[in-house]
From TrEMBL:
GO molecular function annotations of the record: ATP binding
Protein source organism: Robbsia betulipollinis
Alphabetized SMART domains for the sequence: AAA (SM00382)
Name of the protein described by the UniProt record: ATP-binding cassette domain-containing protein
Pfam families to which the protein is assigned, alphabetical: ABC_tran
Entries under Gene3D superfamilies matching the protein: P-loop containing nucleotide triphosphate hydrolases
Classification lineage: Bacteria, Pseudomonadati, Pseudomonadota, Betaproteobacteria, Burkholderiales
Keywords: Amino-acid transport, ATP-binding, Cell inner membrane, Cell membrane, Membrane, Nucleotide-binding, Transport
Length: 233
């Protein structure tokens, strides 16, 4: 079996003296989509931010193709990481065209994925609608041909049709280019639609690793972790 694109082992992260992640461990192979599940405040976003280098107090191993992923966020992005995290993936004061240029993504490529962005090229990213911002962020992150993409609640605040559109674009692009994806999700039914497998975080630890087929069948166990109840695994 070939080596996973992303290996996260014993990841610990803290804000000041508050330890949020105590032992987060998972792998993601090329073309796979891992969804991170867990209740509000479980540490899902912190896991993505720690992998991307935004949480200074982080320990444990993060390997990209067997090599340590380290340094400041921009260095990790150069090392083939794409990021769609609210407030961190776009330059709000720059136009759509300039955001693309910064990421080294051509306008043509974005328009192949999202033709509706054609008339928005000169608008500042911060003035786009939520759906448009997400289309631009997804285009920026995925069209650079990264090996790993981190997505935080991709569909949050989007209409059902826009959610489908953005999710389908991500899945198609990731499958085509063999990108490894880590997608934070709150909702088991969305996770079931997009994931190849899932990890459920509770009390700063991955409490459950599941294959997509098990997600709905084991929803009661997942919910017990959300509620902080003991689970037999
Ligand atoms: N910058 C920060 N400084 C201090 N504490 C933080 C910071 N960011 C997050 N936290 C705390 O860390 C914990 C985990 O937060 P995180 O945002 O990772 O959770 P989450 O699982 O993404 O939750 P949600 O589903 O609500 O987005 C929370 O208790 C939160 O209050
Ligand atoms: Mg979050």
């Amino acid at each position: 079996m070939s080596r996973p694109v992303l290996e996260v082992r014993g990841l610990r992260a803290a804000y000041g003296r508050r330890q949020v992640l105590r032992d987060v461990t998972f792998n993601v192979a090329a073309g796979d989509v891992l969804t991170l599940l867990g209740r509000n405040g479980a540490g899902k976003s912190t896991t993505l931010l720690a992998i991307a280098g935004f949480v200074p107090n982080t320990q444990g191993e993060i390997l990209l193709n067997g090599q340590p992923l380290c340094g400041p966020p921009h260095a990790r992005m150069r090392q083939a990481l794409g990021l769609v995290v609210k407030g961190r993936s776009l330059s709000g004061s720059l136009s759509v065209a300039d955001n693309l240029r910064l990421a080294g993504v051509s306008r043509k490529e974005l328009l192949e994925l999202f033709p509706e962005m054609e008339r928005r090229m000169t608008v500042a990213a911060g003035q786009l609608s939520g759906g448009e911002q997400q289309m631009l962020a997804v285009g920026r992150a995925l069209l650079r041909r990264p090996q790993l993409v981190l997505l935080d609640e991709l569909t949050f605040g989007l209409s059902p049709s826009m959610s489908r559109r953005v999710v389908d674009a991500v899945l198609a692009q990731a499958a085509r280019d063999g990108i490894a994806v880590v997608a934070v999700e709150q909702h088991i039914h969305i996770a079931e639609r997009i994931a190849t497998h899932a990890a459920v975080i509770g009390e700063g630890v991955v409490r459950l690793h599941l294959h997509r087929d098990e997600l709905l069948r084991r929803a009661a166990e997942i919910e017990a972790i959300y509620l902080g109840l003991p689970v037999d695994v």
